[in-house]
Amino acid sequence: MSAPTRILLADDHALVRSGLRLILDNEPDLTVVAEAANGYDAVTALAGETVDLVILDIAMPRMTGIQAAREITRAHPGVRMLMLSMYDNEQYFFESLKAGASGYVLKSVADRDLIEACRATMRGESFLYPGAVTALVRDYLHLARQGGRLPETILTAREEEVLKLIAEGYSAREVAAELVISVKTVDRHRANILQKLGLRDRLDLTRYAIRSGLIEP
């Protein structure tokens, strides 16, 4: 059994940190090894602690979560990061991605999303709440209209894997077993794929997979 993910938790509200720590430490594969009350302390703590994942509140005194993320990306490129915020704010979201974070979790649903966000980040995947997915699609379409350079695909590599298996007729449980992920994660990927591509159901996904060359007709 692999060692649990070692987490540094940074939030300027002690009560919030306590609640989040209870959520995280209740999982056998996650453990909070350090806490910080602001971005500066979070960056400083990394010098003396072995950490795999840093969870940063965006709005903190002395140094914000985004400022801290930039410093961590520069000084500790192997450490992964998640941003935590009260605000469904596109600017914060995009700045977080630019700063090197792998995901953006809203505090209002942290009890539901934080665990999966941590696990997705440690698998090398991004974690985006539905509003963030919409913002990414809008940004992609804006780039297209302005003639900017587009990414090769709007889907992540993992989403393409899920799409291919769904189009080949796999059930959510079979996809989960094939990719060694949970059924809940498969459902989340499927929802993100449908939203990103503006599709409705499995038939639409299959047609898209054929057009994209993911499967043969």
Automatic annotation (TrEMBL):
SUPFAM superfamilies: C-terminal effector domain of the bipartite response regulators (SSF46894), CheY-like (SSF52172). The modification 4-aspartylphosphate is found at residue 57. The keyword Repressor does not apply. Residues 148-213 form the HTH luxR-type domain. InterPro entries: CheY-like_superfamily, NreC/VraR/RcsB-like_REC, Sig_transdc_resp-reg_C-effctor, Sig_transdc_resp-reg_receiver, Tscrpt_reg_LuxR_C, WalR-like. GO terms for biological process: phosphorelay signal transduction system; regulation of DNA-templated transcription. Keywords: DNA-binding, Phosphoprotein, Transcription, Transcription regulation. It comes from the Bacteria. Residues 6-122 form the Response regulatory domain. Pfam families: GerE, Response_reg. One of its GO terms (molecular function) is DNA binding. Transmembrane segments: none annotated. This is Response regulator transcription factor.
